[in-house]
Amino acid sequence: MQLSKNFSLEEMERSQTAQRMGIKNKAGSGEIKNLTDLCYNVLEPCRARFDKPIRISSGYRSEELCVAIGSKKTSQHALGMAVDMEIPSESNLKVALWIQNNCDFDQLILEYYTGEANSGWIHVSFHEGNNRKQVLTFDGKSYTNGLPDAKWSGGKLQN
Fold first, then answer.
1. For the chain, what is the domain count?
2. Euclidean distance between CA atoms 121 and 114, whole angstroms
3. Pick from 78, 83, 100, 124: CA 20 to 30 A from residue 137's CA?
């Protein structure tokens, strides 16, 4: 089932952990609606801007899968409101900065970013009618507000 032009329900439900552990990871109608909203409001604009495929490393997670990976049952992933993503040939900081400045979102977290262009990943969520525009960086130990300072040279992000 296609959620939008470039994103399918299958890729949003894909989980190696769920497959390995025999966990059912199927979104219900409410979660599918939320995933569709996330695709149209964040992922499709990002895909259009960078004109490159987006790799979803984690999309929808059933409550059982959340528990199995040490996450909370109340995670926005369990509601179909969040994805962890990256564009392999783009700096995660550059993509996160673009999302921050151009998309409506609830939460944007640059996770495990070390300063190297392709380190870590981006967690982004969308909550229809209730977006907080919260921006954080997580280094594996603690959260800080905002994104790291970007180094620009010649109009391009350097890292």
1. 1
2. 11
3. 78
Would 2 be classed as within a structural domain? no
Residue 1 lies in a domain: no
Task: State residue 153's pLDDT score.
Answer: 43
- Taking 70 as the threshold, does the pLDDT of residue 107 lie above it? yes
- Please give the distance of CA 75 from its chain centroid, rounded to a whole number: 13
- Ranking 31-35, 89-93, 114-118, 149-153 by mean pLDDT, the lowest is 149-153
Across the chain, mean pLDDT equals 93
Pull the structure tokens for residue 74.
């109340």
Task: Look at residues 157, 131, 136 and name the one whose alpha carbon lies nearest to residue 147.
Answer: 136
With respect to residue 3, please indicate whether it lies within any of the assigned structural domains.
Answer: no
Q: Where are the beta strands (DSSP E) in the chain?
A: 55-58, 82-86, 107-111, 121-125, 134-138, 143-145, 152-153, 156-157
Which residue bears the tokens 């995933």? 35
Whether the model pTM is above 0.90: yes
Across 101-122, average pLDDT:
95
The CA-atom distances, in angstroms, between 14 and each of 47, 82, 96, 99, 136 are: 19, 14, 23, 24, 26
